[in-house]
Protein 1
Amino acid sequence: MSTALPTTDRCPAYSAFFGVMGATAAMVFSALGAAYGTAKSGCGISAMAVMKPEFIMKSVIPVVMAGIIAIYGLVVAVLIAGNIDKDQYSLYKSFHHLGAGLSVGLSGLAAGFAIGIVGDAGVRGTAQQPRLYVGMILILIFAEVLGLYGLIVSLILTTRPVKNGEASGSVFIYGNEHSNDMSLKSSKHVERMSR
């Protein structure tokens, strides 16, 4: 037995909540990771600058890389917020946006933690052994790529096109998809049969 689900139930008023939460998660978690990475790397730079002040500008790389993580979250949050439409915003689309926000946000949080820890230890180690600098940069690049992976998945989820009238005037029947005309014809046929 199939149950018809009209379009109004597919675009409920609360569907915007999930989209807004996706935008919020993208910004908050990625900014949290960037802040941690910046603070932890900054502590390493401050401790190192006491012994070797000439390495300060060379040691700012981890702070810059941590700040880029927040830009990833900002891009996805703006894309999600720009796609929220109060009239034609389906649950399907809002769940995609929630997943996109969590994807970039949580991967940005993990990348920020990794950049902060590597930046702190790497900057202190580079002050004592300058040949460690290239290794530190390579590890920072691999930590940054974690946030980039989340950005790529988020962009795919955010820009995915709506298919089969997900937010339009079609009627979805569980198990089968029919257009409005088809379901109206079948309901008229059932009415005639019952007479």
Protein 2
Amino acid sequence: MINRRKFIQGLATVGGTSLALTCTEQQALAAADIFFKSRRTDAYRARLFSIEQLTTLHKICFYLIPATDTPGAAETECHLFVDHYLTDCIEEQTQLKTKRLLHELEEGATARYGHPFIHLAPEQSVALLESLDTGIAPFNPDLQQDFRNLKFLVCLGYYTSFTGATRELAYQAIPGGFKGSVPLDQTGKAWGSLPRI
């Protein structure tokens, strides 16, 4: 299983994928802000995914950014954020690709292990996600790219959540002066930012 630091280092390559789609950075952060503020008071109603697809997406989030000493992507409800973000910010073609990705993941799980993805053992789930991430059969390079886009959205949701920005990343409401080119091993954590809460 991939550790969180390697995952974050790989995010730089993922961030350059085709999911620079239609939202600007400001629009993306605004969508995240609206979602997480509304989650404090409202029950979320899925708009793009079925309950089964959300359950599959929840399990994917569980493995992409697992809980450690901080809650992971599943605990911060990144699967619901992905539904919100795709519906509000992304064109229909990409929405359909993401739904197809979840369908193909379920098909691959059933073909390889005889069970739906949500019922697989942890090692089977990880093996299947690694196959998807590398484009190994039964998956193809198109699905591999769609999975990278999904990982980007999960990371966007996680690191713009209150938990991701304040507990996983270091956070200061008013940071000190600028220090350029500081090695990560000297700072301990990367810095997150949140809109006023």
